Amino acid sequence: MPVLSPTSSPTWTNERIELLKRHFEAGLSCREIAADIGVSRNAVIGKLSRLNLTRGRTVDDRKVVDRSFAPARAPRAVPRLQYEMLATIYGETGAPVVAGPIDDANRCSLLELAENRCRWPISTPGADDFCFCGNNAADGQSYCAGHSRLAYRPNSRARMMRG
């Protein structure tokens, strides 16, 4: 047990433990419990573990709770540049969809890579023919439009395809 200095107070008071148990039984998430009690999420997870309180794997087992007292969740913002790039590649805007083969005339070494060149690796690192695509990459992007189609696939896992 940690030694407390005269000016410090314990993190887990009896009141906090009872509040933790009530919130846990009500089905609140560890993040929501932590925000309400005033401790970190990891502290909540650790205390639940030490108290041997666990939840089942399904969401349906949780009780429906009025969470009006819990802090609201902030929506996750998609970075503007990433959204614009994906929208352009997959045709969600008026911009033309990039299709067709990827030009291999601009391949370059690591030392030749510049800020606006595609960083898609070609071949295997350490091999004699290892290089990077080198085609023009959009402002702030790591890959050219062709390799972006391979790297960023919405709602699916991108397969590592070398080309």
Model description:
This protein has two domains: 11-74, Arc Repressor Mutant, subunit A (Orthogonal Bundle); 76-163, no CATH class. It has 163 residues and is mainly alpha-helical. It is elongated, with a radius of gyration of 26 Å. Mean pLDDT is 75; it is low at 93-97 and 156-163. The chain has helices spanning 14-26, 30-37, 41-50, 80-89, 145-151, and strands spanning 121-122, 131-132. It is 29% helix and 2% strand. A two-stranded antiparallel sheet has the order 1-2. A hairpin with an 8-residue loop joins strand 1 (121-122) and strand 2 (131-132). The protein has five helices and two strands. Helix 1 (14-26) runs antiparallel to helix 2 (30-37) and helix 2 crosses helix 3.
Distinctive features:
disordered C terminus; elongated; 163 residues; mainly alpha; 2 strands; 5 helices; single chain; Arc Repressor Mutant, subunit A; two-stranded antiparallel sheet
Topology:
Blueprint: H1 14-26, H2 30-37, H3 41-50, H4 80-89, E1 121-122, E2 131-132, H5 145-151
Antiparallel strand pairs: 1-2
Give a count of the beta strands, DSSP E runs of length 2 or more: 2
Low-confidence stretches: 93-97, 156-163
Q: What class would the helix/strand composition place it in?
A: mainly alpha
N to C succession of SSEs: HHHHEEH
- Beta-strand percentage? under 5%
Number of domains: 2
Distance between the termini: 58 Å
Q: Biggest β-sheet, characterized?
A: 2 strands, antiparallel
> Helical proportion?
25-40%
Strand order of the largest sheet: 1-2
Number of helices: 5
